[in-house]
Write the structure tokens for this entry.
Amino acid sequence: MSSHPQPDRPPRLHAANRSGIEIPVSAGPQAVDPSRIGEPGQYPFTRGIFPDGYQGRLWTFRQYSGFGTAEESNARYKFLLAQGQTGLSVALDLPTQCGLDPNDPMARPEIGKVGVSLSNLSEAEILFDGLDLSRISTSFTINGTAAIVYAMYLAVADKQNVPRSKLTGTIQNDILKEYVARGTWIFPVRPSMRLIADTILYSNDVSPRFNPISIAGAHVRDAGATAAEEMAYTLANGLAYVDELRRRGGDAEKFAKRLSFFFYVHMDFFEEIAKFRAGRRLWARLMKERYDVQDPKAQHFRFGVVCGGSSLVAPQPYNNVVRVAVETMAAVMGGAQSIFTCALDEAYQIPTEFSAELALRTQQIIAYESGIANTVDPLGGSYFLEQQTDRMEEKIEQVMAEIDAYGGVIRAIEDGWIQLRLAERGLERKLDTDSGEQVIVGQNHFKKAGEAIKVGEVFTLDPTVAQRALEKFQRVLDTRNAAEVEATLAKLATAAAKDSENLMPYLVDCCHAYATVGEMVACLKKQWGEFKEPVNL
Amino acid sequence: MNTPIESRPLLAGKRILVGKPGLDGHDIGAKIVALSLRNAGAEVIYTGLRRSPRQIAQVAVDEGVDAVGLSILSGSHQELARDVIEQLRQLGAGDVKIFVGGTIPADDQPPLLAMGVAAVFTADMPLDDMIRILAGKLDA
């Protein structure tokens, strides 16, 4: 006898969002305080940093793709530029991100795997061969070795006779979240903060159009943090960078104009919009009240987002297109400056050409067909949204106060306090998903029996990539001027021992001498030691 | 009244090492698993990031664990699992059960099991199922 299918009973609609903010059944005029909202383009920027919103400038469609060798990436970049793309996005392999040379035993299985191996200037010369660095913008997802990669970019520009002042692009360069969620840390927290301040101050002077940091909440969010925690951790990290920059003599009126932020957008539409509006307002207030920053541009909270990530699931993968569309609309309503839309199959394989194109089309449809970008902050003044923005701001401040009460982000990271908090939050989210309390259509409710996912291409390493990288690396070691390498590294060591020195000019000199990433990192490790990861659980 | 059998933690008395081999820094999965194993009664040791297979095997021996869970999201699961198994054998601890979790494509699971991995877990698997399977393998 066949059994009758049981009706799927999802839980009742929630009376609070995952950030822990109560959701009123109905919000009315009494929920809104117009004096807190302000005008678009005016302090406190609840409604956006520009008076004309996307009419003045649409958000950037920033799709991220590609890995392989420097030669293969160079060919790919030339193709993309010929198609009219102006911005490049460079992914680096894990050895480069962790400061290990290709000949390190730990590096070997990872060479060229999740990005390009950029072990020394000669690789950067190949990567950017025939590309005019004064006309393209290059974005590097790099953190632990960001200062070195930036130095290498400056050195390539020097070699191409491109004035450094003409360079545009971004390095992620946000080490604090690496300790918490992404794991490519190298040095202890405090010298790492110095290195980041050095890149920002140096970049402000020599390449003022370059973005020397993108302070990221995305990774903690994807690991399990709530929307409020994502924003709170990110703003707290941002303030830690501001403090370090000021300690090293920086002027907040100047450097704050070049700080930018990076977040995930997940599925709770109003929670996400409220997060962005509250974060933007709070950052402006902190800049003004805590640091007396007067120039509105230095109060601006500029941010990019990723739509997708862990909100996408493998079962019934076409549902992910709908999720990314909802999330993209939330990002637009929140006033994002750039959007990356994940492909529908990203949860389980390298996106196909079809899925990658559909992800870009999703943004284009929302930008050019839906009309939601045509007026600034179209949901501004909504009883519910304004009430939620206020509550979200309070929640963010509450989490930031908890970090302060612990002793600040740096201590909280050194002790592993934030890491443990995040792991507990991740477990909570996983258990809520396992139980079906947090509904994920197709995964824990409304499942289809017998549905197997056909996984396509996953990371597979071309076995010759590592060998070729090692051969090229050895050739550089054999042909460079060893005395010059030694001399520039010795100067770097002396400068690293002295807190008042900015390390960037020394790193650029090392790059010009073809010192390797591993050598520069080893030199700094000798001065500073390594981060001791707290493994208390 | 009879005490239901489930009230005794399934992993009571077990010592389990959770390891992150290689350079991959995505550790939230490893930590979630470590916390849930502990909630299920196990004594859990976490290695932290960037451990070599040799280091992981050495900790497993020094701590006298019953099982080693490897969290791998970089795609290097075949090489790394094989290396850890080999290192454990060299240290005379070939009886320690090995589990692998992470982004493991379905096609890669049979070869892992064939080389001696006791079970493979993926992110979409409910934690309760993972703990039941693990407890079953450890008591076998």
Summary: Strands of chain B lie at 15-19, 43-46, 67-72, 97-102, 119-122. Chain B has one domain: 13-139. The longest strand of chain B covers residues 67-72. Chain B has a mean pLDDT of 93.
